[in-house]
Amino acid sequence: MKIFTFDTTLRDGTQGEAVSFSVDDKLIIAQKLDELGIDYIEGGWPGSNPKDKDFFLRAQTELKLKHARLVAFGATRFAKNPVDQDPSVRMLVEAGTPTISIFGKSWDFHVTRALGIPLEENLKLISETVSYLKSHGKEVVYDAEHFFDGYNANPEYALSTLQAAKDAGADVLCLCDTNGGNLPDRVAEVCAIVRKRFDGVLGIHPHNDTDCAVANALAAVDQGFTHVQGTFNGYGERCGNANICSLIANLELKLGHTTIGRDKLANLTPVARYIADLANLKVPNGQAYVGQSAFAHKGGIHVSAIMKDSATYEHTKPEYVGNRQRVLLSDMSGRSNVSYKLEQHGLAGVSDAGRRELLDRIKQMEFQGYDLEAAEGTFELLVRQALRPGVQFFETIGFDVTTRMIGSYNTITTATTTLKLDDNVHTATAQGHGPVNALDICLRQCLATRYPAISEVELTDYKVRVLDSRKGTAAKVRVLIEWTDHKKSWSTVGVSENVIEASWLALVDGIKLELMRLTDKDESVSKAVEDYCWGV
To answer: What value does the mean pLDDT of the chain take?
Structure first.
């Protein structure tokens, strides 16, 4: 069965705490959603704020949608305004979208308390607004706000609001669990009643306040509803909306329905993470299907099993949704975890004894506070060092960092590093924007002549975490540095009671790893390393 997907990330999603998109962001996301195969993209409420008004104005010339229908969102007319003179309703028409979604009150409590009007007057607001929008050639999605709470309080009135919208020509009747407080059994029961009474397309818009939004949407589909609304990564007010990533994957992979199509399903994870990046938020590691940990394995027994058959501990193949299988390294790891990682990096040449030694070292490092789950670059360096124990590109003799404050707001940081290369001592001094930047500059200056290729390596992120906060400023810290050479990315980690030392350890590991890799593919660097390490 075809299930129509209605994405409201750009409207309802932005009501979530810390979620904000510029107009440019919204245009980019809309284009991505269209490419993914989403059927409806709700862009915002043009009558509520200048940003959304500008979005729809620019969308008319800048968006090139090939599949999706752009949707403007708004409310039924104000009780005091004739529908053709209501500014908000008129702006919906002026938004220029083929589809308009309007919400109206379904709960008698809201009608009498929030709107302060008679129940019959509310039915007129719904009917006249839908009729007006239909007279302008618009497809109308009627969102029945608080429908389930309204039905629980006054079933006949809640149903009469749907009837008013249907009689006025609404194309879709969408039931909203606006407070997110209903459970799947009740949602299914009410949806079954609505399905028996109304033909045509019925939709569901659940919020996630009981952590049941996706389950509630699936319960509605099970009762014959063919229109589901949600947001990417579950963004939305309070606890969020139904996560459309999970909805799409469950409908396609578990229930056999068609949403965006199996051929586009592999783009689900990249789009979810792309939207999160634009929002400057992280996709939760444990988010179903698209999270970084959705197909991650840590226990040694689990890893041993998935190496034989991934179905032993994975409910579906990660590549179906554009994700990937990951094996984590920690003090809970077994030899299977290490073997998996070795094969993953093409470094399977470590002997059984070497693997046991490597595993022991990993567990000891984890005990000290290292996190190799987040720093696969450091793990790869450990493996390469085990494979080539004689390789030592340089030796750290020492470093010094000073920061001076000049005036009230200006500081100057100077670093000096001393390294040993080719039995020669090299020293460099440099100023930087901070201690890490200054040390990075010095390290590169010392190595640039011998290893010019490291100029291609860039630091892209830097994170510090306090490991034992009860010790206050004397606490041990973990520094994680992310790198790129514009072809791939990796992370390295350092741990110390001194944040500068921890940073230095992570810096050095990142550079050493790249030099290790270069020796495998660059003959000139390889020869230089061999000359130095083995005196050939």
So the answer is: 88
Which residues on neighbouring strands pair with residue 461, listed in sequence order?
A: 482
Look at residue 28 and tell me whether its pLDDT is greater than 50: yes
Residue 284 is classified by DSSP as P
Name every residue whose Cβ is closer than 8 Å to that of residue 504 and which is 6 or more positions away in sequence. 396, 399, 439, 494
Long-range CB contact pairs, 57-62, < 8 A, 24+: 58/23, 58/27, 59/27, 59/30, 59/96, 59/97, 60/96, 62/27
Sheet containing 395-406: which strands, arranged edge to edge?
395-406, 410-421, 424-432
CATH superfamily, domain at 395-534? Alpha-isopropylmalate synthase LeuA, regulatory domain (3.30.160.270)
Query: How many degrees, rounded to 5, is the angle at CA 413 between CA 408 and CA 418?
Result: 165
* Superfamily in which the 4-262 domain is placed by CATH: Aldolase class I (3.20.20.70)
Sequence spans of domains, the chain: 4-262, 296-386, 395-534
Grouping H, G, I as helix, E, B as strand and the rest as coil, residue 421 is strand
In three-state form (DSSP H/G/I as H, E/B as E, the rest C), the secondary structure along 71-116 is EEEEECCCCCCCHHHCHHHHHHHHCCCCEEEEEEECCHHHHHHHHC
Query: Which helix (H) or strand (E) is 412 found in, with range?
Result: strand 410-421
What pLDDT band is residue 127 in, cutting at 50, 70 and 90?
Answer: very high
Q: Which residues are CB-contacts of 14 (< 8 A; sequence separation ≥ 6)?
A: 20, 21, 44, 235
Neighbours of 134 (CB within 10 A): 16
Within 13 Å and on the Cβ side, how many CA atoms surround 129?
A: 33
What angle do helix axes 376-387 and 335-344 make, rounded to 10 degrees? Answer: 90
DSSP string, 332-363: T--HHHHHHHHHHTT-TT--HHHHHHHHHHHH
Rounded to whole angstroms, the Cα distance separating 432 from 413 reads: 6
Which residues, in sequence order, are CB contacts of 202 under 8 Å at separation 6+? 172, 173, 174, 175, 191, 194, 195, 220, 224, 225, 226, 227
Distance (Å) of CA 233 to CA 158, 203, 243, 316, 496 = 30, 20, 5, 19, 35
Q: Of 34-43, 206-215, 342-351, 401-410, where does mean pLDDT reach its minimum?
A: 342-351
Contact by Cβ (8 Å): 101, 39: no
Integer Cα distance of 419 and 463 in angstroms: 25
DSSP code string of 195-236? HHH--SEEEEEEB-TTS-HHHHHHHHHHTT--EEEEBGGG--
CB count within 10 Å of CB 179 equals 15
d(CA 188, CA 218): 9
Q: Would you state the structure tokens that stand for residue 83, as one six-digit string?
A: 């529908």
With H, G, I as helix, E, B as strand and everything else as coil, classify residue 118. coil
- State if pTM tops 0.90: no
Please state the length of the chain: 536
Are 379 and 404 in contact by the 8 Å Cβ rule? The answer is no
Question: Rounded mean pLDDT of 14-37?
Answer: 96
Q: What distance in Å separates the CA atoms of residue 31 and residue 12, rounded to the nearest whole number?
A: 18
Instruction: Find out whether 419 and 397 touch, Cβ atoms under 8 Å.
Output: yes
